[in-house]
Amino acid sequence: MTSPLATASDPAGFGLTARRHDDLTALEPIWRRWEAEAALSAFQRFDWLQAIDTHILRPRGDRAFVIEVTGAVSGKGLMLVPLVLERRRIHSRISFLGSEVSDISAPVLAKDYVLPDDAGPMLWQAIVSALPPADLIQIDQITVAVQGRPNPLASLPDLTLSPKKSFDVAIEGDPETLVDRLVNNQTRRILKTSARRMAERGTVRFVAATTREEVETLLPVMVEQRFSRFRELGRFDHLTRPGIENCYRAAALAGLGGRGPAQVFGLAVDDQWIATTYTLIHADTIHLTIVTMAGGDWHACSPGMAILARYMRWAREKGLTVMDFSVGDMSYKSGFGGQARDLYSLTK
Which residues of the chain, if any, have pLDDT below 50? Predict the structure, then answer.
């Protein structure tokens, strides 16, 4: 289903038109074309959002939709805003599509398009005019920029500063010296001790999964290591929610064929996997979404830190230039050179 057009304009004659699409596949051709030339993060890649819709949202009755924003005069497509309507027993809520497994809320922004500085209220008026009815609108993790361009959602009225921050760092120069150039002294000492202790236990292998067999081997390791760690900390793990593990698996398998952005990594000593990471990659940026590590006697080897060092070198070898450590103020992020970035939220 596609909603009627709705238009917002200002006295100067600039206007935005919004149309709602209730089927992601209706926009698949333009979405895939824009992935190659538009500004978006890996979290707004079509295959990632389709996996979320298929394995998480539809089974629990939530409805994904996209607001397509165009120029009122030119008719040119300007951005795609992916959202979801969640219906619960006593309320309904609109949030950003995939927010429970994604770290960035940003539209798919057309090539060369930058929203005028004062057009945020107009954009919001256009978006709201095409939304389905809901009791609450809540969009979190709005970044100031996406791929170096202003995020139009950051210009919306009535945003609040989130208590959470994201962390990223530029990764440049020689891959072999990258980590040593970025890390602080404490992290450098940890990595040296880790390398020595792992070598004493066996042959160390770092694997970027390129086959179905490797993905199917590493994902259960990731899940078990994460479950064990969260039980140890007494924390709830969203991976236990229905469909989320299947979503990660489907996206990782799609990534093998080059269609999706997901990539899985593992670190082993001899035949024992001691750490994993789950990553999304788009354009020049690699996004760390999950890092897990073995517990018990392996704690002394700091396997989580060890895999991150190798993972960052791999990213630089592939020509990537930005390492996104995702949301959350954890000491290892600043230890690897991560810089804090503000995030914003919208609640209506």
Answer: 1-13
Full-model pTM: 0.92
- Which candidate, 255, 191, 192, places its Cα nearest to that of 218? 255
Residue 94 tokens, joined: 């609109």
Helix (H, G, I), strand (E, B) or coil at 112: coil
Report the b/e string of 96-122 with b at 16+ CB within 10 A.
bbbbebbbbbbbbbbeebebeeebbeb
Structural contact between residues 193 and 302, judged by C-beta atoms closer than 8 angstroms = yes
Q: In Å, what is the CA distance from 88 to each residue of 32, 236, 336?
A: 32, 21, 41
Tell me the CA distances in angstroms from 147 to 31, 44, 125, 144, one per residue in order. Answer: 17, 12, 25, 10
Query: How many Å apart are CA 346 and CA 93, to the nearest integer?
Result: 13
pLDDT in tens, 199-249: 999 999 999 999 999 999 999 999 999 999 888 888 888 888 889 999 999
User: Strand, coil or helix: what is 109?
Assistant: strand
Q: How many CB atoms lie within 10 A of CB 169?
A: 17
Which value, to the nearest 10 degrees, does the dihedral of the CA atoms of residues 83, 89, 90, 94 take? 0
Q: Check if the beta carbon of residue 79 is closer than 8 Å to that of residue 119.
A: no
Q: At what angle do helices 185-201 and 303-317 cross, to 10 degrees?
A: 100
Query: Using CA atoms in the order 294, 289, 338, 206, what is the torsion angle rounded to 10 degrees?
Result: 50
CA separation for the pair 87, 213 (Å, rounded):
38
- Round to whole Å and give the CA distance between 51 and 64: 12
Compute the CA torsion angle 45, 259, 27, 30 (nearest 10 deg): 90
Rounded to whole angstroms, how far apart are CA atoms 106 and 127? Answer: 14
